[in-house]
């Protein structure tokens, strides 16, 4: 696993090389290690695909309150990075849900302040189960393997989008693009995330609506996939526990 993570942070990780000519992931969220964020541009790319939101799982080694701002220090096995978020004057809850020297799941955007990369924290939640850390490490490794496979296939054919799952080679190109839109997710997970994202309802996509839009053989899996996407920070509930929106 460490070998895969190290190779993911090679120079080719966010270079100009890309296995698709389109900006596939305008609203994607990609799991990364801290080393992948060091020395990178704010417009970070993963194997040529622009990344909008970043997810890390790290130890919160320090927390400071500075007037209207919270300052963090995050570290994982690959490095350390500072983070910050703003405190709402109208918040009716504590400004930070995590404690010092504990693991947290962090969603944010890469920012460069005074020549130093840091993470603008959009969401931070304490790690409730170490399985979440394992799942994060597996997602990062999968991204590495998918990217290597895609780059290898790109050398063979510039016009062919590589298959990134154990899907049937006869599947249409649209299915493959669907998987690549959400690096680290399987085809069924990516399909449900796409349905949620495309919903125009005020409160997002409703559970039964989602089930009505998936193939029949997937209906029984929808609840489990929704729980997974929610725990991984891809979606959140709104009006009730049956309405979902994409982060």
Topology:
Blueprint: H1 2-8, E1 29-31, E2 45-46, E3 49-50, E4 53-66, E5 69-76, E6 79-86, E7 102-113, E8 116-126, H2 130-156, H3 173-181, H4 187-198, E9 205-206, H5 207-212, H6 222-231, E10 235-237, E11 243-246
Parallel strand pairs: 1-4, 6-8
Antiparallel strand pairs: 2-3, 4-5, 4-7, 5-6, 7-8, 9-11, 10-11
Helix pairs in contact: 1-2, 3-4, 4-6
Protein name: Replication protein A C-terminal domain-containing protein
Main location: nucleus
Keywords: DNA-binding, Nucleus
- Provide the spatial order of strands within the biggest beta sheet: 4-5-6-8-7
Number of strands: 11
Q: Give the overall shape, derived from the CA principal axes.
A: globular
How many strands, which pairing sense, and closed or not: the largest β-sheet? Answer: 5 strands, mixed, barrel
| Classification by helices and strands | alpha+beta
Return residue spans where pLDDT drops below 50 for at least 5 consecutive residues: 1-12, 14-23, 157-180
Rg is 19 Å
């Amino acid at each position: 696993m460490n070998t895969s993570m190290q190779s993911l942070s090679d120079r080719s990780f966010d270079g100009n090389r890309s296995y698709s000519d389109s900006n596939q992931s305008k609203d994607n969220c990609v799991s990364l290690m801290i080393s992948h964020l060091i020395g990178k541009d704010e417009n970070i790319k993963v194997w040529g695909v622009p990344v909008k939101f970043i997810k890390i799982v790290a130890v919160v080694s320090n927390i400071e309150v500075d007037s209207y701002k919270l300052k963090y220090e995050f570290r994982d096995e690959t490095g350390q990075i500072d983070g910050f978020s703003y405190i709402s004057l109208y918040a009716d809850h504590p400004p930070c849900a995590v404690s010092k020297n504990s693991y947290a799941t962090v969603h944010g955007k890469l920012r460069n302040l005074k020549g130093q990369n840091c993470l603008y924290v959009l969401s931070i939640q304490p790690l409730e189960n170490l399985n979440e850390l394992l799942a994060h490490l597996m997602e990062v490794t999968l991204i590495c393997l998918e990217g290597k496979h895609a780059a290898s296939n790109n050398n063979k054919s510039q016009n062919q989008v590589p298959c990134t799952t154990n899907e049937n080679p006869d599947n249409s190109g649209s299915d493959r693009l669907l998987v690549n839109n959400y690096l680290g997710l399987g085809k069924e997970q990516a399909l449900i995330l796409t349905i949620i994202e495309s919903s125009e309802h005020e409160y997002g996509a409703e559970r039964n609506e989602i089930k009505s839009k998936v193939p029949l053989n997937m209906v029984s899996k929808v609840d489990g996939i929704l729980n997974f996407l929610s725990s991984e920070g891809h979606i959140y509930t709104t009006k009730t526990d049956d309405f979902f929106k994409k982060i």
